[in-house]
Amino acid sequence: MASSSIRDVAARAGVSVGTVSNVLNHPSKVSGPAAERVHAAIRDLGFVRNGAARQLRAGRSSTVGLIVLDVRNPFFTDLARGAEERAAQSGLSVLLGNGDENRDRESTYLDLFEEQGVLGVLISPLGDVTARLERLRARGTAAVLVDRSGDESRFSSVSVDDIAGGRLAVDHLLAQGRRRIAFVGGPFDIRQVADRHRGAELSVGSHPDASLEVVPVPALTVQAGRAAGQSIVRRPAAERPDAVFAANDLIAMGVLQALVMQGGGVRVPGDIALIGYDDIDFASAAVVPLSSVRQPSALIGRTALDILLEEADDPALDARHIVFQPELIVRESTGG
Amino acid sequence: MASSSIRDVAARAGVSVGTVSNVLNHPSKVSGPAAERVHAAIRDLGFVRNGAARQLRAGRSSTVGLIVLDVRNPFFTDLARGAEERAAQSGLSVLLGNGDENRDRESTYLDLFEEQGVLGVLISPLGDVTARLERLRARGTAAVLVDRSGDESRFSSVSVDDIAGGRLAVDHLLAQGRRRIAFVGGPFDIRQVADRHRGAELSVGSHPDASLEVVPVPALTVQAGRAAGQSIVRRPAAERPDAVFAANDLIAMGVLQALVMQGGGVRVPGDIALIGYDDIDFASAAVVPLSSVRQPSALIGRTALDILLEEADDPALDARHIVFQPELIVRESTGG
DNA sequence: CCAGGTCTGTGAACCGTTCCATTCTGTCAT
DNA sequence: ATGACAGAATGGAACGGTTCACAGACCTGG
Description:
Two copies of one chain form a homodimer.
Chain A: H1 6-13, H2 17-25, H3 32-45, H4 51-58, E1 63-68, H5 74-89, E2 93-98, H6 103-116, E3 120-123, H7 130-138, E4 142-146, E5 156-160, H8 162-175, E6 180-185, H9 191-205, E7 211-216, H10 222-233, E8 243-246, H11 249-262, E9 273-275, E10 292-294, H12 297-313, E11 321-324, E12 327-329
Parallel strand pairs in A: 1-2, 1-3, 3-4, 4-5, 5-11, 6-7, 6-8, 8-9
Antiparallel strand pairs in A: 10-12
The structure holds a DNA duplex (30 and 30 nucleotides).
């Protein structure tokens, strides 16, 4: 209630409102003694700038919004930390919204950020958000797609080549002598999932005696992976794949739990080799250390923020598309 | 640039600005046909409310801020999801700030939320933030401490009894016949760490032949745990503890990696039993499935948000302190 | 036919800041 | 002494909504 405004500060310091504002924003324009008095008044009154008023006048804020697919996926929190780190260097803050693999949530955060007038939006989109982003851009808000190879769009993007990643994973499985590959992943309207699967297809396509099946899951979570793993275990041994490529490490961890712990003695990699994607911190500590495809998560976040800031500065800039290459990490789960 | 204001909408719909505002905020006060025209105008113009202006006038926003200790800790992301879920039910949004076990970051987010005039703040504090929260409250912003048993303070809190949790863990280790317990955790100015350690002390104190040592770590991360684990492995076998209680599962996973994979054949639980804290999703999929102390993370988030909303409604409400009880989860890492 | 009431819709004040044109003060060269 | 000029401080106009007292329009019952 007793929150004081810039007017109160001005009155107490015996200067005008404009001077207080100058102390805060253009200190060089104010003489030493006056600035001193203003600072004292601010301290005494516990004055805090009203961000709403500030932003209303200024037209834009100093925060950027980041919407991730799933905040419980360590890949995204690592990415978020990368972005935050870079933002902090520029005196900006990152507001993290959890899309939760849910279009409504994604849309709600987009609304929120739009209303809040953030400087820019970093988004790892679930569906097609170009229309929404187009509108944002029209109002002067920059947007960069993260973890999405969006060369089709007019928005900059920072991503990892997921097709190459899928290839890398399945080439490795094939090199280990596996032939009946199962891709456990979904939903397929998530671009990363579709791309990783596509990479797997390409790899399998070049081996005439290899086959690829799809075990669909409803979400990229440990729980969903566990369920998929159980469905594999329930099959007669002869009908099981001899290798599983999971769309991400969360799924892979779930599959692993089902195979090794609940499964009737399925051996990994003996009976079924397993490889995940993202190389999260926990992958190497799994019951069978998990092979994976590593993405430079923090670097993606940092890079995306850099691009966002450049575009916020100069909206006329052409869209750029940074694509990082994934890296194969071999551990015991593929019998490396 | 071409962003349209409520005045543009009013002009196009042939009504006054007041009416447009009513359509948006008090639909019952506007007749059908007029509301229709306004909605059409909003659609045509792609009008989006300016949150800053809205909030400036209204004095409060519809977002709550959540500051967590470390966004990479699954415990906190689960908690965040619980809070988000409940917030969504009330048409609110949660902005997630990553304190990153760093006082500056924590403070920066507090500043940000204060300037933004959020409805309330949920915080899992690193240091002593009561002075800051006191000021927030003076300006009409509610605050609830999460994962912190703050009965000493005048702020509501939702937490888990960490002393009981520490007891639970070490009682279990003692029951398994272990006597030389090491507590791996830090920094101790994090209340949860101190409390879990205290619980361990209490437990050990009632067993005359048991001892407790502390292996301090600089942060609650997998990396820090790994380093601590390595330091244990490097000791002569006789000087190693026969059980490790890790301050959280991240630490435990790191210790586990060091002991089992890099260590010279240290067996878990054969040589050293290991128990963590939080029971994150990954704990059960660890190389040796990890015993842990489970906290109802999502429930904590939901409850904290409920309390926050009640206090935001009625600031005169007395502070409440909800304390949940932790639950022991026994898996192989303690030879259960 | 009019007093009184209910609905709709109006218009202007206001929120707290920033920005800018303007005024004031003092210094200095002419 | 005066005009020019720089630096410091001022005052008021935005910014884009929300709110509220009030005005018309329309109905109803006496």
